């Protein structure tokens, strides 16, 4: 199961605490299921930056299409009646939400993107 950002930072802090308490990197790595090099990296970052060093760094790659503003727009849209947007159903489908979002925002999102956003917030 995928961990939340807060959980990842908490586990890193626990592991760094164990190393600071005198445990070996190898033993702590085995306990927390980190690689030795990853744990050494977290210990060094913590020594130089404090708890901020344990946070995830930005990763390369395409930025997400669904921005915070679009997600807020989607949540407002879900609370409205789909019949007012020409739907023949009284409940939204992900496909219909994607179509209305594209009409209103000019950003085309897939059904799966809509589904995952709703799953996260609802």
- The fraction of residues assigned to DSSP E strands is under 5%
Question: H/E order of the elements?
Answer: HHHHHH
Q: What is the CA-based Rg, rounded?
A: 21 Å
Cα separation of the termini: 19 Å
How much helical structure, as a percent, in the residues? Answer: 55-70%
Give the total of beta strands: 0
Précis, in short:
The chain has 122 residues and is mainly alpha-helical. It is 59% helix and 0% strand. It is built from six helices and no strands.
Keywords:
single chain; 122 residues; mainly alpha; 2 domains; elongated
Task: Report on the architecture of this protein.
By secondary structure, this protein is mostly helical. The protein folds into 2 domains: 5-54; 68-121. The protein has helices spanning 5-20, 25-32, 36-49, 68-78, 94-105, 111-121. It has 6 helices and no strands. Helix content is 59%, strand content 0%. The chain is elongated.
């Amino acid at each position: 199961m995928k961990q939340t950002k807060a959980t990842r930072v908490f586990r890193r802090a626990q592991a760094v605490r164990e190393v600071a308490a005198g445990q070996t990197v190898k033993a702590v790595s085995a306990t927390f299921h980190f690689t030795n090099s990853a744990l050494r990296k977290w210990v060094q970052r913590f020594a130089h930056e404090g708890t901020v060093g344990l946070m995830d760094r930005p990763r390369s790659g395409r930025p997400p299409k669904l921005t915070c503003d679009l997600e807020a727009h989607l949540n407002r849209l879900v609370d409205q009646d789909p019949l007012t947007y020409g739907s023949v159903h009284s409940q939204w489908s992900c496909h219909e939400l994607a179509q209305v979002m594209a009409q209103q925002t000019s950003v085309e999102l897939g059904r799966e993107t809509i589904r995952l956003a709703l799953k996260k917030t609802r």
